[in-house]
Amino acid sequence: MSMTRMPALYLSHGAPPLVDDPRWVSELRQWSTDLPTPTAILIVSAHWESAPLTIGATDPAVPLTYDFGGFAERYYRVRYDAPGAVDLAAKVAALMPDRLAVQHDSQRRLDHGAYVPLTVMYPEAQIPVLQVSLPTLDPEKLLDLGRRLRPLRDEGVLIVGSGFTTHGLPFLRDWRPDAVAPTWSKEFDAWAGERFAAGDVDALTRFKTEAPGMPYAHPTAEHWSPLFVALGASDDAEQVGKQVIDGFWMGLSKRSLQLA
Questions:
Q1: In this predicted model, what pLDDT tens digit does every residue of 7-58 receive, in sequence order?
Q2: pTM greater than the 0.70 cutoff
Q3: Which Gene3D superfamilies match (predicted)?
Q4: Which of 7, 57, 61, 211 shows a CA-CA span of 20 to 30 A to 79?
Q5: CA 10 to chain CA centroid, nearest Å
Q6: 139-149 vs 226-233: helix axis angle to the nearest 10?
Q7: Helix residue ranges per DSSP H, 64-200
């Protein structure tokens, strides 16, 4: 395993059927191929909100969290038996300002915002993976959390914020993977791409009031919020990030970002 300094990622993770989309699978696999091999992966997903910061299971025997409904049975039989990142869990706790405030949930393992993209990017499941909760949806507090986690990148840890650049599920009328993106999704995506390119973190934190397509693009903020953990973990969030994936799936923007 490499000790190369790793980037921080914000990726749009998709629902369980992501694995059936050849283009998206190809994009994610190419992305992981282009990265150095991590010593471990630390991931925060839109699908686990818990305060204070909660560290998930480090025992790979704990079942995955199948936090979805209405899909084919085969999606509930997926396994991802990556090693438990026990050492990483201890390091994350040590980086927090009040170690006593950090909680542990030994029964909550990776949810679909974590394991679905990882089954594509690292299908061998040989790299230790740790999931931590979103302890807040406040952008400034999440930027601070990312800053605290930043030193882990020097130890080869890949820090991943897993969300979705648009996530207006209540407003979708066409649920096909190749559906034409609604206007609100296209407008928010274009704005996000411009703000990413400009390194305009302040504007990104003000998405509720500044971004076109709101509130339809994000009727709730949890799928946008992991972005700020990744931005905080970057060396300089105002540098231009590499936009690795763009386009739409089911009308939702899958724009994804790599930060140095």
A1: 999 999 988 998 999 999 999 999 999 999 999 999 999 999 999 999 999 9
A2: yes
A3: LigB-like
A4: 7
A5: 5
A6: 40
A7: 86-95, 112-121, 139-149, 183-198
